[in-house]
Amino acid sequence: MNKKYNVYGIGNALVDIVTEVDDQFLQDHKIEKGLMTLVDEEHQTRISNAINMNDSNMQCGGSAANSIIAVSQFGGSSYYSCKVANDELGEFYKSDLSSNGVDSNIQSEALANGITGKCLVMTTEDASRTMNTFLGITESYSKAEIKEDALKAAEYLYIEGYLVTSENGQDAMKHAKKLAEDNGVKTALTFSDPAMVKYFKEPMVSVIGTGVDLLFCNEEEAMLYTGADNLSEAQEALKGSAQKFVITLGEKGAIVFDGDTFIDIEPNKAEAIDTNGAGDLFAGAFLYGITNGKSYADAGKIASKASSKVVTQFGPRLETNQAKEILNELLVEA
User: Fold this and answer.
1) By the 8 A CB rule, do 8 and 157 touch?
2) Strand partners, 36
3) Is position 148 within any domain?
4) CA-CA distances (angstroms) from residue 293 to 24, 46, 281?
5) Per-residue pLDDT tens for 100-155?
């Protein structure tokens, strides 16, 4: 039976503000390079005031949102469950999500009073990305935002690891996962960031429970979660948490486990200027592939090509025409 949605995603709704800084800026403002750090509004306002915001790029985002938008851009169908406030950025988020072809709970609901979350993404010359995130109203994201009918109508549930930082977020993750399992919807989860595995490992283990159908992580996250000493050990250990999984390896490509075989996904050469969103795009493109008749190997090729493209430009996602070009290129190569 064909489902209405390829993927139903849950995660933090954040307006991504992407800007360029240098290492000295990060040092001067005591910002830890290369990590996602949760900050209060005062801190974020102070950093924003020190940056030339006119040169910044603004998009609706959040880790899972970027993946869900990618599904849509490649030609799939997707739904995103999120929480934004009834302020200017909340309306911007709602409009941007809709213009990217994604259905959402916020399209038909009155938005609550509060402040919409923002993520200041600072990229440096070495293509490293550093994120300071003020969650705003999405900090209160809970199972109340999970729309059962839409979830049941999806082939996959996609869970963002960043939700693990709050108890209500953990409840939402577990609630959605149980709903999916009870209704024959496959479960996918991304660790999102090494910090989520390092500092919230116990609740993350609790969320995963007996396992997920598909897990996305990078090499560092795989090692941290499994406690393995090397990648080979981590690969074997992850089999206990996920039936299938993808480990992204940056410029070395990726490893896909399809439940039976390990598949090496070749990297595509790229001159990286901004790695922000590369993992999110990889996951979204991969999910598009496996829910639209592609093998795990071919889905990996689409995802690898997409992520190598996004790192050559600023911002966490592609334009729809770029996604279509990638599919056409792979069709020609085949």
Assistant:
1) yes
2) 131
3) yes
4) 48, 48, 19
5) 999 999 998 889 999 999 999 898 988 888 989 999 999 999 999 999 999 999 99
Whether residue 14 is contained in a domain is answered as: yes
Q: What 8-state DSSP symbol labels residue 317?
A: S
Alpha-carbon distance 178 to 183, whole Å? 9
The Cβ of residue 333 has, within 10 Å, a number of other Cβ atoms equal to 8
pLDDT value, residue 87: 93
The SS3 assignment for 152 reads: helix
Q: How far apart are CA 93 and CA 314, in angstroms?
A: 19
83, 13 in Cβ contact below 8 A? yes
Residue type (1 letter), 162: Y
- pLDDT tens for 183-213 read 999 999 999 999 999 999 999 999 999 999 9
Amino acid at 219: E
Q: What is the largest CA-CA distance in the chain?
A: 56
Cα gap 136→39, rounded to integer Å: 10
Q: Of 107, 113, 166, give the one whose Cα is nearest residue 142.
A: 166
> DSSP state, 155?
E
- Residue 75 region by backbone torsions, left for phi larger than 0, else alpha for psi between -120 and 50, else beta: left
CATH number at residue 185: 3.40.1190.20
Residue 22 CA from chain centroid, whole number: 25
Estimate the share of the chain in helix, then strand, then coil, as percent rounded to the nearest 5.
Answer: 45, 25, 30
Tell me the chain's radius of gyration from C-alpha atoms: 18
CA distance 237 to 276: 28
Cα–chain center distance at 8: 13
In a domain, residue 170? The reply is: yes
Residue 4, domain member (yes or no): no
* 188 secondary structure, DSSP code: E
- Contact between residue 195 and residue 63 where contact means Cβ atoms under 8 Å apart: no
* Separation of alpha carbons 83 and 42, rounded Å: 21
The answer, as to whether pTM is greater than 0.85, is yes
What would the two tokens of residue 101 be?
């072809």
